[in-house]
Specification:
This protein is an alpha+beta fold and 213 residues long. The protein is built from six helices and four strands, in the order H-H-H-H-H-H-E-E-E-E. Strand 3 and strand 4 (204-209) form a beta hairpin.
Length: 213
């Protein structure tokens, strides 16, 4: 087979044309892709390539993809997050709901009501000094003048629950509270537990608080 030799001029012209075309491409401004669009494109490409690599028996279906795409921040998850410090009374309801979710009710309503009333009063007496004389077995120094550790004006119980404590005659009251100490420092989301035992007095059951150790 005979081939006609190419002219040097034709080769030179072809080289020049290719060089000019290359320079023209270099001069074209590059428009950056928006970050969100680029991320979405990359994510879609990754997902499609991953899905294509899976065997047909385990490829994700539409329902599976929808379930996977469901965010973790569902209403229940959002509600379980504790409110930020210093939010004030607006966050107390969320704290109460979190306590009730963490420890489901397991006491009769009457017992729970009695324990909550006593637990709140004990906490107030312990923090502010008001009402300590009612429980001399818990506060043996209640007859003496005691400087309150926290101001009564800025003392607030944020949430409280009463639950059984390892036996039918044992209970504990979990309290979350806020207050300003004598130094003027305000703190919230403080946690205090009061333990009780049930005693029978003249045929009536009574919940008795235990001294704190």
């Amino acid at each position: 087979m005979i081939t006609t030799p190419r002219s040097p001029r034709l080769l030179l012209l072809s080289t020049i044309v290719l060089a000019v075309a290359g320079l023209a491409l270099l001069d074209v401004p590059h428009v950056p892709e928006p970050p969100a669009q680029a991320a979405a494109t990359a994510h879609a490409t990754t997902d499609s390539s991953s899905a294509a690599a899976l065997p047909p028996s385990i490829k994700p279906t539409a329902s599976t993809a929808a379930a996977t795409a469901t965010p973790a921040s569902t209403p229940s998850a959002v509600e379980s997050a504790p409110p930020p410090h210093g939010e004030g009374a607006a966050g107390d309801q969320a704290i109460q709901r979190n306590l009730q979710t963490a420890w489901p009710a397991d006491l009769p309503t009457a017992d729970e009501r009695e324990l909550l009333t006593a637990g709140r009063a004990l906490l107030r007496a312990d923090a502010t000094g008001i009402g300590r004389a009612k429980w001399p077995e818990v506060f043996p120094d209640s007859g003496q003048a005691v400087a309150p550790a926290f101001s009564t004006a800025r003392f607030r119980i944020q949430a409280a629950i009463a639950r059984s404590d390892g036996g039918p005659d044992k209970a504990v009251v979990h309290l979350v509270w806020a207050g300003t100490d004598r130094g003027g420092t305000f703190t919230d989301l403080r946690i205090t537990d009061w333990h009780f035992t049930r005693t029978i007095n003249k045929g009536a059951a009574t919940w008795t608080p235990q001294p704190r150790t």
